[in-house]
Amino acid sequence: MSGQLAAAEPYATRFETAVSGIDGRHVWLERSYFYGESGGQPADRGTIGDIEVADVRIVDGEPVHVLAEDPSFKTGHRVLCSVDWTFRMYCMRAHTASHVLYGAGRRLLEDLGYGGFDIDEERVRVDLETSTPIDDEMLIELNESANRTVWESRSVSWDTVSASQAREREDVAFNEATETSAFENGQVRLVTIGGDDERNATGTRLQPSLGGGRSSEPWDVAACGGTHVRNTREIGPVTVLGRSNPGDGLTRIELAVGPRAIDRRTTEKRAVFGAKRTLGTSIGDVSAELERISDERDALADRLRTRERELVTERLLRGESIDCDGERWLVATVGDVSVDLVSDAVRDWIDDETDRTATSARVVVAVGNAEEPFAVVGSNGGRAATDVLSELTAAVGGGGGGSDRLAQGGGFDATVDEVRAALE
User: Which InterPro entries has this protein been placed in (predicted)?
Assistant: First the structure.
């Protein structure tokens, strides 16, 4: 026997067969419907003769069953085998959902290529190669398209064709690097969703979908060696979770099926209804209202920053003028503002001849307290800012750095008043 019978008969989960070989806890069967881990789909779970199957691996085209404990049976014995139906069905649904998503991508994304997929108990990951930016709005469209396809109850089928024939077809998602289990002896297994003259379970011909019309072309055709349901309606709820970038040129789409998809929808519903209540608006207006509030917040933040900047400049101009080794310095306490804002103000001071003329200072030192004391030093032809900062940190601890014209430091073992006193 060669190949995976589980892929050909995914609904077969209880069977009796003979043990053809044993090596420790590794068991070979005369016939096996256990799916061996391959192409991103995990191995089946279950039992062989009441002993738990911990793993199933494909070695030289044959499934090798790894038991959780030493077998009680021997080579030649007949054993009753049971595949964990709950996990098998989850994998069938999840794997078919990934094909449905790819079919949606065919219609929404440019230059689409298949980069592989992976199933775990929490989510399904589908890697896409595309030149189309996949933003939040595109995720929503992919989610909607996938769920419409589930609702439409499209048929799912699989057959084998020559690899050369499959390569010539532009409609086939084809990646020999990630789908090695689909290829054998010059043949390739194709999984097809939808197709010409498609009919539902009662035999009624399916009508065009609400989402823009059903064509006679299949929704998706892909080289695949995994297990699948017979109809998209068996997939159940699908929820796109998000996206990431696992590598150059790849976008990873994550989705959930079944209970975890329902859990995610529940979380999203709670968030939307909570926003609706807080904003006092309808669900349809939540996004617009949030955008309006965000714009108001940004405008207020800009106004606040402008006022704080004006306040820092005013405090610099009102700072104390001191003589340091024959050089006039300006020392100012600027209060509880950000270091970056103070640095910008000091930089403008050393660049603005009007400010320098008003104070007659060649060096300005601004001392503030944003969570902890800090100092920003600016110099315009006077002592180097980094030298001033080094002398200050030698006196009060901490550290910092910068250039001859602008430097900043913090982490002092002193209060703002003590830092200022050290300058004087």
Answer: Ala-tRNA-synth_IIc_core, Ala-tRNA-synth_IIc_N, Ala-tRNA_ligase, Thr/Ala-tRNA-synth_IIc_edit, Transl_B-barrel_sf, tRNA_SAD
pLDDT confidence band for 212 (50 / 70 / 90):
very low
Domain of 71 in residue numbering reads as: 5-83
- Among 83, 106, 126, the domain boundary falls at 83
**CATH assignment of the domain containing 363:** 3.10.310.20
Two tokens at 139?
A: 């995720």
Q: Which of 189, 38, 195 is nearest to 118 (CA)?
A: 38
Domain co-membership, 271 together with 314: no
Distance between CA atoms of residues 337 and 213, nearest Å: 59
Cα separations in angstroms, 276 against 165, 182, 282, 385 = 54, 48, 6, 53
Question: What pLDDT, on the 0 to 100 scale, is given for residue 232?
Answer: 97
Residue 207 DSSP one-character state: P
Give DSSP secondary structure letters for 229-293: -SBGGGG--EEEEEEE--STTEEEEEEEETHHHHHHHHHHHHHHHHHHHHHTS-GGGHHHHHHHH
> In this structure, is residue 251 part of a structural domain?
yes
Q: What is the pLDDT of residues 317-358, one digit of tens each?
A: 888 888 887 888 899 999 898 999 999 999 988 887 655 555
Count of CB atoms situated within 10 Å of the CB of 294: 10
State the distance between the two ends of the chain, measured CA to CA, in whole angstroms.
Answer: 90
CB of 88 closer than 8 Å to CB of 226: no
DSSP 181: G
Q: How far apart are CA 423 and CA 406, in angstroms?
A: 17
Within 10 angstroms of residue 19's Cβ, the number of other Cβ atoms is 20
Number of domains making up the chain: 3
**In a domain? residue 290:** no
**What is the Cβ-side half-sphere exposure of residue 204, based on CA atoms within 13 angstroms?**
6
pLDDT recorded at residue 185: 80
| pTM strictly above 0.85 | no
Residue 94 domain-assigned (yes or no)? yes
Residue 398 and residue 201: Cα distance in Å, rounded? 75
Q: Report which residue type is found at 414.
A: A
SS3 content of the chain, % helix, strand, coil (to 5): 35, 30, 35
pLDDT of residue 198: 56
